[in-house]
Structure to design on (272 residues):
């Protein structure tokens, strides 16, 4: 998984369930607490695949992410979901519980982030993976500041660090994954996702350029390696994986060529 040494093997105790779209559950594992997204959630197995791939791409792009893992739920594990049923056995996505908070929408907090340069990378990521669940502009506006997650850091400098979380609604906006992932309208979607109005004054052409330079290094082989990490139990068929690889690799190049002009159509960009 993306990084770190957090590698839970067993679920020791159910703590709390939440009525989110994927019915997230807080559990205690053999290496501490985590937030679990299991099979049997109301939105199906494909959102777990989107969460995994989106998190891997965020990490590849250089944005801090939570430590995550795939953990197996056994037949004997009884994990109640908010919808009233139990989680299904099989591989589940889990992220390590961290002390942090959701961004409240104020510009001052963003200006004081220890990694405010990663705001540019987050916009690049969300546009690349068509993530409708942080900020999607008109005509169908969606604003979800809860998915701008800030973690308290104590060393080497105390402060808040932006983390990329929750990519269940990337790529398809929560819908089923199909072969149409690689359709030309999705590869060449010109919408800029994730660019909250409060982000714009803090975006610079230099930082967008650095993220775009990294994006240009994504190719089919890299994308295939990430997509193949999806557990078979999450029901993403081979033809869909092939389409997904094409979307990731070809859209990377398309976004890299055009993103700066989409953000600053008048030209110039903010000063670095």
């Amino acid at each position: 998984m993306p990084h770190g040494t957090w590698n839970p093997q067993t679920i020791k105790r159910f703590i709390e369930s939440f009525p989110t779209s994927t019915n997230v559950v807080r559990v205690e594992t053999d290496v501490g607490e985590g937030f679990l997204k299991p099979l049997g959630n109301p939105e199906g197995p494909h959102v777990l695949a989107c969460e995994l791939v989106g998190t891997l791409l965020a990490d590849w792009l250089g944005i801090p992410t939570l430590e995550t893992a795939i953990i197996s739920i056994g037949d004997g594990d009884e994990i109640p979901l908010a919808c009233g049923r139990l989680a299904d056995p099989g591989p589940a996505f889990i992220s390590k519980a961290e002390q942090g908070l959701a961004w409240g929408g104020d510009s001052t907090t963003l200006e004081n982030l220890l990694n405010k340069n990663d705001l540019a990378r987050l916009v690049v990521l969300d546009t690349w993976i068509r993530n409708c669940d942080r900020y999607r502009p008109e005509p169908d506006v969606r604003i979800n500041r809860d998915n701008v997650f800030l973690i308290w850091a104590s060393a080497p400098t105390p402060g808040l660090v932006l983390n990329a979380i929750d990519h269940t609604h990337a790529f398809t906006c929560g819908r089923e994954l199909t072969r149409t992932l690689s359709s030309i309208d999705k590869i060449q979607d010109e919408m800029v996702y994730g660019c909250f109005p409060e982000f714009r004054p803090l975006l610079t052409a230099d930082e967008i350029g650095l993220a775009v330079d990294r994006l240009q290094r994504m190719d089919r082989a890299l994308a295939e390696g990430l997509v193949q990490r999806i557990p078979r139990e999450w029901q993403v068929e081979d033809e869909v994986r092939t389409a997904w690889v094409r979307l990731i690799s070809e859209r990377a190049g398309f976004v890299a060529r055009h993103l700066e002009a989409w953000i600053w159509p008048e030209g110039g960009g903010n000063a670095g």
